[in-house]
Write a structure and sequence with these properties.
Order of helices and strands of chain A: EEEEEEEEEEE
Helix content of chain B: under 10%
Number of strands of chain B: 12
Strand content of chain B: over 45%
Oligomer: heterodimer
Largest interface: A-B, 18 and 22 residues
Number of helices of chain A: 0
Largest sheet of chain A: 7 strands, mixed
Mean pLDDT of chain B: 92
Distance between the termini of chain A: 36 Å
Low-confidence stretches of chain A: none
Largest sheet of chain B: 6 strands, mixed
Radius of gyration of chain A: 13 Å
Low-confidence stretches of chain B: none
Number of strands of chain A: 11
Radius of gyration of chain B: 13 Å
Number of helices of chain B: 0
Structural class of chain B: mainly beta
Distance between the termini of chain B: 40 Å
Shape of chain B: globular
Amino acid sequence: AAGVIQSPRHLIKEKRETATLKCYPIPRHDTVYWYQQGPGQDPQFLISFYEKMQSDKGSIPDRFSAQQFSDYHSELNMSSLELGDSALYFCASSIRYTADTQYFGPGTRLTVL
Amino acid sequence: AQSVSQHNHHVILSEAASLELGCNYSYGGTVNLFWYVQYPGQHLQLLLKYFSGDPLVKGIKGFEAEFIKSKFSFNLRKPSVQWSDTAEYFCAVYSSNTGKLIFGQGTTLQVKP
């Protein structure tokens, strides 16, 4: 079965640079969620989109923005990167913006030097 | 404050031992409950979920969990663990009050062969 696809899988950036992470949800899933998981921590919800509109917002820094496109893929844009942004960024998708099960992608490991 | 609490941060077992990982939540309203597993270097995978009905749910790989509403608990169990069960286990709760999926701190399970 098709799963959530994230790219790139690994990304190394310098401080103050920008990064763009991409997420392709499972086919027919219309809701995308972004999470940040620091080393040894639980995933923290950043932001979600349903039918291309932002549906909810968590602990996402103002330096980060995201959007969902007409084909339901989503991009997380991160600017003015800081060392503390180094983490695993997961995307998850669900069939609708409800309590339905979220299926997670493999994650993008971002390292900021 | 609304939270998800996992009692054990690090559990070490020998193969064939029985496993029980505790999870308690403090959310009100309707809740959907999940256990995810994260194998070393991999993404979150759904083990099992509870939405309604029989409070004893069975998941993949021989795992099961019991929802006890009066105790706000959703403990994960497995009668006999294997070395391949070594992983991080996350309890997660979706609350209709918050509209978000909130994770517990995670439990690292190490199974000795």
